[in-house]
Amino acid sequence: MPARILHCLITAAFLSPLIFDAQMPVRRLSDVRAAGASAEKARALVDEQALAVQSIDRFAVSHQVDITSVTPDYNRTTHAFVKTWVERPGHLRAESQQYTRSETIVSDGATTWVYDGGNRTYWKQTGGAPRALFSNAFPGLARQLSSANLPSVITAASLSGAESLTIDGRGYLCDIVDVTVVPSASNSALKDNLLHLWISREFKVPLKVEATFAGATPADLKTYSDYVTDFEPNLNIPRSTWTFNPPPDAKPRSATADPAQKN
């Protein structure tokens, strides 16, 4: 299994050298306060990124999801690719690819088109795309563990360092935040109830997310790494982006379905 990224804990409190009658080490009051301030900053960053993914406007972002299944017998990594254009309040285009499957969702706020590349079928729905698709434009997990929902399930957060991520030749300085959530948020599948966020200091959005999930046995694991590969903020997006043109061999489908959510 590829090695996990090691995080350097820069905000740990240090034990005091003072020894009392019971010979028990204690922490300095200043260290306790520093640790508390660091935890507060980490939680504030989680809150900020939740707001940012729901409000950032006029951008295009691409990200890659690597999922590695680890068992005693084999390691296997699969990849998925997503690109999303967003212009609020209602314009969105999302294109995803995994294996031979692909999906395109296009919305101008009044009508939403969905194209299933696997079945070569498409359909339309009245109204805009689901709100979750806008915030899921950036790396993150699904449902309760999505970036927008994290503040509602978090139990603790800590700063574990900083790293500059190079994306298409440009560096984005990020704070690395370790987030602990309630077990019910993942049906106890998230290992140690812990995930890691790389939050951009400039744009406040997550540019990378990592997590590990438990499998059927303690020896079975699934590691998840979702990271931005291209980011174009403050983008003047052509009007044609919100127009859906079905491929020549695609067929309309009469029944409608909800646009796919991130898994």
Provide a concise account of the structure shown.
With 263 residues, this protein is mainly beta. The protein is built from three helices and 14 strands. It has one domain: outer membrane lipoprotein receptor (LolB), chain A (Clam).
Structural description of this entry:
This protein is mainly beta and 263 residues long. The protein has a single domain, classed as outer membrane lipoprotein receptor (LolB), chain A, CATH 2.50.20. Helix content is 13%, strand content 46%. It is built from three helices and 14 strands. The protein has helices spanning 29-53, 131-135, 150-153, and strands spanning 15-19, 25-27, 59-70, 75-87, 91-98, 101-108, 111-116, 121-126, 154-167, 170-181, 190-200, 206-214, 221-232, 251-252. The strands form two sheets. The protein has a twelve-stranded mixed sheet. Strands 1-2 form a two-stranded antiparallel ribbon. A hairpin with a 5-residue loop joins β1 (15-19) and β2. It is globular. Residues 1-26 have low confidence and may be disordered.
In angstroms, what is the radius of gyration?
21 Å
- The secondary structure category is mainly beta
Largest sheet: 12 strands, mixed
Structural domain tally? 1
Quaternary state reads: single chain
Query: Helix and strand succession?
Result: EEHEEEEEEHHEEEEEE
Kindly identify the CATH topology.
Answer: outer membrane lipoprotein receptor (LolB), chain A
